[in-house]
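Below is one protein, fold included:
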Amino acid sequence: MKNSVIRVSIGARVTGGDQEVRDLISNPSLFVATDSVDFATQSLLRKQDGQFEIAALTGDLSVVMGNGLTSESQNDLKKIEFSGPGIYPIRIESLINKVVRANVTSFVN
């Protein structure tokens, strides 16, 4: 779709242990993004089954084009900033015309 993006957002580092993780899972509205990047779906590599693919390498999120090259240049970096080591909530959303159509929340360490 012309006006669709995949948004990857990071929340604040988990400091409340496993209870905070359970709370974020049971009540997704508690998630507050501290940083996010948007990827135009037209620019993302697709697998044979039609799924989108985003490469996340060493904390940097880069868009991989159909030819296997990244769309990044020195002036076009797409990076999510972590505030240090720890566990962070991550939300991935599919937006069409700026409206969230689907989302999932997970955690990274």
